[in-house]
Here is the input.
Amino acid sequence: MSANFDAFFNEIQSKLGTDAVNRSDETLTRYGENTMPGGDRRPAGVVYPASTAEVQTIVRAANTHKVPLYPVSTGNNIGLGSRSASKAGQVIVDLGRKMNRILEINDRLAYCVVEPGVTYQAITDELMRRGGQLMLDVTSGPPQGGPLGNALDKGAGYTPYFDHFGFACGMEVVLGNGEVLRTGDGSIDSDKLVNWHTSKYSFGPILDGLFTQSNYGIVTRMGFWLMPRPPAVQSFHFTFPDDDDLEEVIELCRPLKMSNFVPTLFRVANDLYLSASEGQSKEYGSGKAFSTEGRRALREHFGLGAWNISGAFYGPNEAAMAPMIQRVRDHFMKSGKARYIDHEQAKSIPTLQVAINAFSGTPSLGELGLLKWRPGGGNIWFTPGTPMDGKIANEFQHLCRKIYEDHGFDYTVMNVCGARFARGLHVITFNREDADESKRADACYRAMAKAFAERGVFVGRAPLDYHDMHFAQTMPGFRQACTAIKQALDPNGVIAPGRYGIQ
Here is the structure.
């Protein structure tokens, strides 16, 4: 049975009001925009629920009229799809327009509860208004992005609370059949929910993970644990001069994280990842990757290295952290290749101030400059995870660098390093208005995805254009399980068909 869009929109307007629906040409164009090489995806319309009950109304109407929905929160998933639906012609459910309330902040137990439209900036502002005793781990992406959408897409930050889904607790979900599910202690059939956002492991199966990178339901409420704001933050930074120093850098970072001596994750960024945020490429138009000479000039101009390592300590004051800073400094400097940049120096270097902001729980716009490295607004992210083994890291660096260069792009990457695992944030910035360049960007991404999968390494998050490709890389049993869950929770397939490859 084909979708009856007119009947669907008429029902929503009748039940939720005329301002709950928007089908204007301008709106459809805006909601279809993204930075992908495959082009924009114009939706059939946009609906704006104001509550969980209204989301239920929308989902039930979608089932009646066979209309595909695509929920978004703040729509700032830049480089991965923005607000675009999986396929053109789906209806965007914009949860952020009206469902943007901070529902609770518990100062004693250090958690907050938010609706999908609440942004990192909004929570930070409210926590500061309340005295600044708590902070939320933030991304280094747009301050107007939201923690709920980021956590559900397995996003992360840099403080000890970096795992955004791991530090979430308790959610409310509208399933594909219109019924409401509460996870964790919220699943108890009671109006008194004392532990909903403090107890992750309650009676029965842990269902929360089903709603990450999937299309089984629409999350309308989520709790997040907050970190006590430290009295003082002291960052430290090191530069290494050569590309192949990555092997040594990874070997130096691992023991400091394995013992948890350094509480933050390490940001290990190459020269172009940091420099590209500060302006457009002066070599664009050559048809080649950024030159060795050009990279050297950028490093000299910004005071950077081929690799740049950032981390931070928390403590009562600077004096208390001084011995820890000295220990890390001795550790990195023993090779004779590293150059140390202290906290005060780094504050005067914009490309390193971004790291300080992230470690301090302060949203910032700094890394959005990466979008302007080349004209035309094209941007996709390739996010494989590799083990914290220096030799392996260097092998993958050489592999990716060659693929970038073969396709005429500038190798731009930051490795976010924990104890055993590093997430590689590879940025492909391209001119989306140039058909040949868009084609090469697409080919570059696919070549890297294929090469990594052949070596047993998978991506974490995936840009919209590549959901089907990555889903096809999974084992048959995984695909069958995802399909079976979809049929059970969303039998008519109305929620985001095709998201992360799940139909």
